[in-house]
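[Amino acid chain]
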Amino acid sequence: MRATGYPSVRGRRRRATVAAIAIFALVAIFVVRLVDIQVVQAATLNADAVGKRSISTTIYGDRGKIVDTNGKVLAGTVLRYDITAVPKFAQAGYTTTDAKGVKHTFTLQQAAQQIASATGVKVSTILSGLTGDKESLYVKLVSAVDVDAYDKITKLGISWLYPQRTTARTYPDGAVAGNLVGFVGTDGAQAGLELEYNSCLAGKNGSQTYERGADGVKLPGSTVTKKEAVDGGTLETTIDSDLQYQMQQDLNEQVQAIGATSGTVVVMKVSDGSLLAVADSGSVDPNDVNASKGKNLESRAFQASYEPGSTFKAMTAATAIDLGAASPASQEVVADTRNFSWGGMIGDAEAHPVEHLTLAGILADSSNVGISYIGQKVTKQQRYDYMLKFGLGRTSEVNFPGESVGQLRPASKWDSQTDINSMFGQGVGATAIQTASIYQTIANGGVRMPVKLVKGCVGSDGKVTDAPSDKGTRVVSQKAANDVVDMLENTIPEGTLKGMTPISGYNVAAKTGTAQIADGPGGTYGSDYIISVAGIAPAENPQYVVLVTFNKPTTLKTSFAAAPAFREIMSQVLENYRVKPSTTAPTHLPDTW
């Protein structure tokens, strides 16, 4: 008889087998899951873990400096800090321990007030940043605070607050050379040299990472630099900032004195074409761009084209002499007006009886009628070709942003009036830089040097790039150039600058210009003028060219209104650079015959 109440041996074996299978399956599941976590998903999970504790930050490469010819900083970079935070850990406020070991706890509202007080930002702005997304691991609360604000922030000891180093652009001399340097905005370089040489000046950012704990605090020693930052290069200019400051002051005073709308001064070194000062009245302060408007944001010397008037007569004379068609002694019978068979008419600035003038006298008296006789001794195509060689009709070698090429149509498109008017600087346009370059060429014995505003860019590795060319181009013969300089010495003692007090101790060659402004219907000339004086000193050994121009003067509309500014500026240039006084008597060529 079989016993009851006890499982059979077969049953026990079956249950044992099932249990073993279940245990094996469970272990297999764990093994598979472990393999999946440690092998299959390892990279992804590690990345997620690192992503939650690893923070990547930018290492900023500083923007390079712009300096004057003596190394004085015109534009530089200053240290600033962005204040960032981790909102997720900020909601509970923070706790800090003082020097005595006493703990202090602050609420989120109190922390926001402390941050606002340190940075000068509204409390509401700070709270908005910290509470906009309470689970966020990053928010920038304040941008570009100074070192004082940074020190105040760090002294708070807020664990979830992170100042990040950044930079800001600064211009130590304000408006001095602001028209040339340009400025940097939120979207990067906006104007001037900042824009033209952005590739030289811009730094290259790097990156680094650090890890933080569960409480959001940065783990000591966890910072790893992945890419080093590279600072931008130093842009070396030819500008003398001290001279530039003086020129801007003198210019602004004279603009006000004669009631002009604007004025420009160019100081150029004869031997190499370098610009020592390029001043525009009302120049922009790059530190406060919004305070300036319209044309004051640019460099009128480079970007504004104007009809230069009689300063062009020196070029017309040099062309005729170089082609063998005239000489300083060329004789012309000059009335105060001249009528042409095609119906045109020109006149001199003042009525006068018929005069017997030499070319020297024509330049000294600035006779439009007289220079028309000289200009017609050569073809209009020849004069056009020389204008091109003198640098007209194209931008200068500086290639300044927005630089004007002036207004110069091919000679084949000149009508009869333009043909004549172009001899004395009307019907054509030039920038102040182009006009100054004409006088540099004449002063340099007929060799035009490339216009220079920049010496080069010195990279962080010491290599120099963007160095300008030093190769000059002969435009007219040395004799033709010297003849023009000699003739221009007559302007001050007995020509259109006769009333100007000479610059004591120096022989100066100069030419005035008075050009009507075409602003009426159909481009007709109105009652406004652009007046100017271009000069060379010392005449017997030319070293510097000075050009002053004023737009729409009201108290006196003749070129003589520009004489005081020219005299003051040329005197300062000669004094600043300690130019030796003239040791020879001034050249005096016959004005009449």
The longest strand covers residues 73-85. The longest helix spans residues 9-40. The radius of gyration is 38 Å. The domain at 241-284+302-457+469-576 is CATH 3.40.710.10 (Beta-lactamase).
